[in-house]
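Marked as duplicate of an earlier ticket. Keeping the data here for the record.
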Amino acid sequence: MSSPRTIVLITRVAVILLLATIAFLVFSPYPGLERFIGLTDLEAHALAMFALSCLAQLSVPWMRRRDIATLCLCLAGLIEIVQPYFSRDGNLLDFLVGGFGVFMSVAPMMVEEVRRRAREKGRRVKRSRFDVSASAPGSSRTIQSAAPPPSV
């Protein structure tokens, strides 16, 4: 099995390759290159930001997930701002779909974080000392009486 250092190194290389591919597809003078692999423009934006966000979370494990997602959203916005300078069109819908891709990569982790916090700091149910189920024989909680047991 690979060590964590190896996995981080591999994902960093993958992030660099993915960024180079995104830069080529986004800034090339040939719009519609994503159609050669069977994707529409919106699908390509969502998939690119999803993959970038997932790989970035593995490649920089010391950064918070929300910071990585924010950086990916900033990159999606920067792409749409810079595209008109490269004979392409900047589109708000492309940015929103890219943001959806980032959200889809972070959403399962956010749900797991909420579940972990609920397990750690979950409300403990306080039972009444008169609760019948709490004093049932064989239950883990038994009611302690205030008086000592009678001596024989």
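See parent ticket for discussion. The chain is about 60% helix and 0% strand.
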